Amino acid sequence: MDHHSGRRFAVPHKKLSLDIKGTKTDLIICSYDDYFLVMVTQIGSMGTILHAKKEEGVSIHPTFAVSVIFGKRDEPMLMACARQLIEHISNSGSSKPLVLSLGLKDHSLETLKGVASALIENRLW
């Protein structure tokens, strides 16, 4: 057993399970030095992976770029969820980008609201 192996998990993180619309939902929130990683699954796998960041610009109002790295590209609700979270991160004073994995059984507004509020409640930013 390598005695250094425990160090890999020195990243601040939270892991929890909750019920969203009657479905068991697992959440993992990690704060790395240069980004936040958030994984949400109801299906036991990664699902769609999105990247969201605050754009550095001259505008007074911040703009945010949200893109799909992997998975469903035509899901506006997933994009909206990522945008809500990156805005929240930015408003909390962090400029770190977000990598968000959403493996959800449905992409309804109700489900995504539940996911977003659970993440904000348990945030590490």
Sequence-ordered SSE layout with sheet pairings:
Layout: E1 13-20, E2 23-31, E3 36-41, E4 48-55, E5 63-70, H1 76-91, E6 98-103, H2 109-121
Parallel strand pairs: 3-6
Antiparallel strand pairs: 1-2, 2-3, 4-5, 4-6
Helix pairs in contact: 1-2
Overall body shape: globular
Which structural class is indicated by helix and strand composition?
A: alpha+beta
Annotated CATH topology? Ribosomal Protein S5, domain 2
Radius of gyration: 15 Å
CATH hierarchy class name: Alpha Beta
How many E strands? 6
Query: So, CATH architecture?
Result: 2-Layer Sandwich
DSSP helix fraction:
10-25%
- Largest sheet report: 6 strands, mixed
Number of domains: 1
Instruction: Give the strand line-up of the largest sheet.
Output: 1-2-3-6-4-5
Which stretches are poorly predicted, pLDDT < 50 over at least 5 residues?
none
Number of helices: 2
Kindly report the average pLDDT value: 91
End-to-end Cα distance: 33 Å
- One letter per element, helices H and strands E, the order comes to EEEEEHEH
The percentage of residues in β strands lies in 35-45%
Protein name: Proteasome assembly chaperone 3 isoform X1
InterPro entries: Proteasome_assmbl_chp_3, Psm_Assembly_Chaperone
Keywords: Proteasome
GO cellular component, one term: proteasome complex
